Amino acid sequence: MSIDKETARKVAHLARIAVAEEDLEPLAGELSAILGFMDELNEVDIDGVEPMTSVTPMALYRRPDEVTDGDIQDKVLANAPDTREGFFAVPKVVE
């Protein structure tokens, strides 16, 4: 896919980037090169390849999902400037 100067101008406007008129043509070329590279990546056969979360294989530490800090509501609310019925009270911001 080839990007023309007008499309580059529109992309720059949508991205809220100020691009000088003389820089639109090189920008269009760079965007076209990026889209060409993406087309190349779409041709790669990825059947049977698992998605990666990191470039180095590692297992993440998983702790048991247990409640350990229960019944500390009073401690949590102790430094709050305003509380009501056991919750933080905040100013109303929507009418």
Automatic annotation (TrEMBL):
Catalytic reactions on record: L-aspartyl-tRNA(Asn) + L-glutamine + ATP + H2O = L-asparaginyl-tRNA(Asn) + L-glutamate + ADP + phosphate + 2 H(+); L-glutamyl-tRNA(Gln) + L-glutamine + ATP + H2O = L-glutaminyl-tRNA(Gln) + L-glutamate + ADP + phosphate + H(+)
Protein encoded by which gene: gatC
Biological-process GO terms, alphabetical: glutaminyl-tRNAGln biosynthesis via transamidation; regulation of translational fidelity; translation
SUPFAM superfamilies named among the record's database cross-references: Glu-tRNAGln amidotransferase C subunit
EC top class, as a word: ligase
EC numbers: 6.3.5.-
Record's function text: Allows the formation of correctly charged Asn-tRNA(Asn) or Gln-tRNA(Gln) through the transamidation of misacylated Asp-tRNA(Asn) or Glu-tRNA(Gln) in organisms which lack either or both of asparaginyl-tRNA or glutaminyl-tRNA synthetases. The reaction takes place in the presence of glutamine and ATP through an activated phospho-Asp-tRNA(Asn) or phospho-Glu-tRNA(Gln).
Residues making up the signal peptide according to the UniProt record: none
Protein name as it appears in the record: Aspartyl/glutamyl-tRNA(Asn/Gln) amidotransferase subunit C
